[in-house]
Amino acid sequence: MAAPLRSGIGVGSRQDTRAVHGTSFQKKSRGKLVSIPGTRPSVQNGQLLVSTGVTSLDYVIGGGLAVGTLLLIEEDKYDSYSRMLLKYFLAEGVVCGHSLFLGSARDPPEEILQELPAPVLDDIGCAAGDEGQAKLCDSEGEDSMKIAWRYQNFPKVQTALAASSRFGHYYDVSKTMDPEMRQASKCNTFFLPDELPLKSEAEPSTMNAGYRALLRSIQNLIHREGFDTAAPQNKSRNILRIGLHSLGSPLWGDDICCKESPSDAVSLTSFLYGFRALLRSSLCVGMVTVPSHLIQNRAIMGRVTKLCDTAIALESFRGSERETNPLYKDYHGLLHVRQTPHLNCLVCEVPDTKDLAFKLKRKQFAIEPHAAVDLLVRQPPSEPPIEPPTARRGRPVRDYMCNCKSCSPSVCAMQPGSGRGGVGGGGELLSDMAGI
Amino acid sequence: MLLDVIQCVESGRFVIIQDSVQCCGRQLLQSFMCAALKREEVVHVLAFDVAEEDLRVPSDSGCAQRLCFHDGYTDPLGWNDSPPLTVLQFSPGEIHALLSRSEHPKPVTLVIDSLSWVLRHHPPAVVCQCLQELRRGGAVRSIVALLHSDLHQQGIVGSLCHLATAIVTVAPALRGHHTVAKTTRRTRSGRVTQEEECFIIKEDLTVTVQKQTHHPGQRDTEQEEPQADPAAHLTFNLRLSEAEKEAKDKLSLPFVFSQEKKSALLQPRPGAGQIIYEPDANDDFDQEDPDDDLDV
Asked: Which key words are in the record (chain B) (predicted)?
């Protein structure tokens, strides 16, 4: 909380010294875009990134979503987790003060917005409760601290960053967001059954009426609110987050889910083409969920993936035999990274491992490399004991380390290590030292 | 769980009963109608597949008033004059008009027998949009529809089931007169539960669940044996008696000072050290939530 103040002072003093010494040195000022809240430049290519609302997903797709790009989420079978990701994406926009646009054909957008998860903001009430906490420690902690009593008079230190200055937040899915907070952000909605009667007469177009109305609505919003990069730069800029739910489902009037050779196979792809063109020339970032398990023709799904920049697929264990598989007992599903964007470069960011699994916890949507690593340590008891490798046989070491089908050799070669072990140990050490 | 689905009164629910040529689901549909009538609900039936007599449910006079048949069976395409219901009338506006014709103003349960016939005459996308519109409209509290899933392409069945809040797939059991129902239910919050049950429908159309054939998730708990208490047979003493506890409390630990000395040391002195910590973005802060195992 003190950081903005301090930096303010710093800037002031630097200007003073410059005035005194009169040097020509000027600090290279950052671009205007960086000042938009909730964004940060990418470390790889300098693109302006925004968070998806899920910190671990940001990491998997290379730091975040670049402004002007489109994220495709292939829905899980029952649309539970993909809907959750959409809500995280919108909630992150609310917390960062971005504008929102939500398009849906199934549930009214207002309903989805009401279900946004509550952010875990640890700076709320901290300023007020600071002194109170210190006093509390004074009175109560007297007998509770036997060994490390020297610390009982110290005020509690805030270990987490102030939430507003962070990139990406955590959300508590067991609570919904405060309506006041939600209404503070500008939110536009598009609900197909409400919009469609207003449509003009059938025009010759490659897109069906629903998509056309949606694209127009987005285009109007971008021009009206000045999100396009061609707009005059004088006023403060903001990001528009566009979330579209279950695109391609029959409720949008699309029949790619129903038939192998649909009558308007190009409807969705033309929409995405137009949508991406809009995104590229504006300060917008899009998230689209598509029920890919219903789409019969894989070629269409391939085209849809190509038209999006980043593509991930969720595969929930719910209802499949994997639910009871001990290998997956710690997770709710698998996450496949289908595509990462090539932005202003020839090669794309490649994730460390492709065997990712997710778990929806109360305060976190966790994405981790799944149990393949554990298999190295714990072999299932039914398996016959594996002989140690001998140089004579000349078998590659990798072969015997893991004999599960699901993991690739690259994962098996990976060393188990979460990089987390040291922290707890350090803490204990500190408290031990305090007593002595 | 099948009984829960039958008795569910949540508004906006949409149940699909999937049957095939091996096993007919119409009797189960009738039990859904029967249960709704017993709950004092108004039931409208769009009958395309069979005649009204075959879909009748045994009921008293009060129930008969609340049950309203729309006959789409005798003249499904409107070739004669003034047909009661044609399949071409399957659109939100027309159905709302049909429902408002009856004198009961209460929200109704709409029973469709069957969606397969409707799907023969309308594009699947239109059927999906119509069903969704009906659910949202407010005049219809719940929709129960029969679908002969072996008549359609997998994509069409999948698209319809994507909209449903509950899907009951019936199949013949290996032996006896039972029928196996595989029920998938989706709650508003996105939680999905699945169960497979054997059931019998009695003459008065009440459903009795015989046994649960398969319960995913239960198997794990059964396999776990009760853990033996590791502190049961020890050669040394792990517990303290009262007297021992007292003696332990009396013992003064090193560096634990008397109250006075402590408070003297705790007084802030000039020149004493101070800890200043400012959190930084690169800090390795553990976000793990200790209460994660609690129910989300």
From this structure: Cytoplasm, Nucleus, tRNA processing
